[in-house]
Amino acid sequence: MKLSKEWRIGMKDMQQILPPPRNRGQLKKPTWIIVLLLLVCVFLVLSYIHPPQTSGSCYIFSASSCETFSSWLPPSFRVLSDDEIASSVVINNILNTPPIDSKNPKIAFMFLSVGSLPFEKLWGKFFQGHEGRFSIYIHASRDKPVHTSPYFVNREIRSDKVEWGTVSMVDAEKRLLANALKDPDNQHFVLLSDSCVPLRDFDYVYDYLMNTNISFIDSFTDPGPHGSGRYSQHMLPEVEKKFFRKGAQWFTMKRQHAVVVLADNLYYTKFRDYCKPGMDGSINCYADEHYLPTFFHMHDPNGIANWSVTHVDWSERKWHPKSYEKKDVSEQLLKNITSITESVHVTSEERRETMIMPCMWNGMNRPCYLFARKFLPETQDSMIELFSNYTTKQ
User: Fold this and answer.
1) Which residues span the membrane (predicted)?
2) What is the 3-state secondary structure (H, E, C) of 264-310?
């Protein structure tokens, strides 16, 4: 009996030392955690379906922007309209159709001018001896040109009024392309202004453009007020802000791209109606700077170079680029321009971010520019005198 009593005392002591057994219900995770997780999941799904439209809503997630939050999520897919489907089919068929096989491939030089071309004599020197390898088209929006070179006689197309900053600039480009496409031998198309001059000899330009399979269309992202700040929500759903691009209008493009531009009506209409001065009260959008850069970024981003082969100097930070006067023209100036091998874009943000990329031609880093603007008429004699010197040293 004594032994039994001692054993019971020992067990009692052990119970005091050991922790009490856990309640079976405490093994489960607290219900409030599960409910919280479910609420977060539901909130994220709803935010994905109906994303926040104000910057204040975005700051719930991140101090950066709604784009940062949306980057966490998989891409959304929407049902395309009948017009978008039809446009996509046409564009893809044109891009996938082999180019016309020409026995005499030519470059179409398309001049956008208000009247006479002040550099006809210089261009005549550029074209001389290469007859049959080029075509010339002139869109004179105000006056009938008076010609000083036989290469330009009777090369005017039916023109219309062109106003700077309006979609009429794009209309003139399309009018030039339409006339140039009539000739099946034209395989590459160059848009030039009346202030453009050649920087290279004809053979160099011909080789540069004809022996590559891309178009030299300028296209870059500018998140500033003169880039994405010009975008209008009215362009939705076909043109989303993330696709909106900017670039110089002075392009060169291969035949397939020229046909695509003429075939497009859907996206052109969006820019005609919603990219113009005074949009939404205070936004000044210029279709000639945004339509083609955005259009080709959306439909054939790998088919364009993202820079223009026409040099222009924006270093003065004015509404218009630097104009070259007679005193500015020298062999050193032309050498400096033709030695540039990197394309530079500067955004319109207050911090003015600079983006630099090498000018790649068939996988090789080559000089970027074949033409230059904006040269004043007074420079023609100096340019003619220098032409043979600086082109023979290329």
Assistant:
1) 31-49
2) CCHHHHHHHHHCCCCECCCECCCHHHHHHHHHHHHHCHHHEEECCCE
Residue 172 CB contacts under 8 Å (≥ 6 apart), including other chains: 112, 139, 141, 159, 160, 162
pLDDT in tens, 35-71: 667 776 666 655 555 554 433 334 333 333 344 444 4
For residue 328, count other CB atoms closer than 10 A to its CB.
14
**In the block, which residue shows the tokens 């001018």?**
113
How far is Cα 105 from Cα 264, in angstroms, rounded to an integer?
25
Contact in structure between 195 and 376 (CB atoms under 8 Å): yes
One-character DSSP codes across 161-204: ---TTSTHHHHHHHHHHHHHHTSTTEEEEEEEETT-EESS-HHH
Query: CB neighbours of 181 closer than 8 A, spacing ≥ 6?
Result: 255, 258, 259, 262
**CA–CA gap between residue 243 and residue 187 (Å, rounded):** 28
In degrees and rounded to multiples of 5, residue 221 shows phi and psi of: -90, 125
Task: Compute the distance between CA of residue 49 and CA of residue 220 in angstroms, rounded to an integer.
Answer: 29
Q: How far is CA 381 from the centre of its chain?
A: 35
Separation between Cα atoms, residue 331 and residue 334, nearest integer Å: 5
371 forms beta bridges with 198, 310
Residue 389's closest CA among 312, 332, 320? 332
**Tokens matching residue 372:** 């230059």
Measure the CA–CA gap between 197 and 195, rounded to whole angstroms: 7
Per-residue pLDDT of 94-107, as tens digits, reads 999 888 889 999 99
The three-state (H, E, C) secondary structure of 345-378, written as one string = EECCCCCCCEEEEECEECCEECCCCCEECCECHH
Please give the domain boundaries of the chain with CATH numbers for all domains: 82-309 (3.90.550)
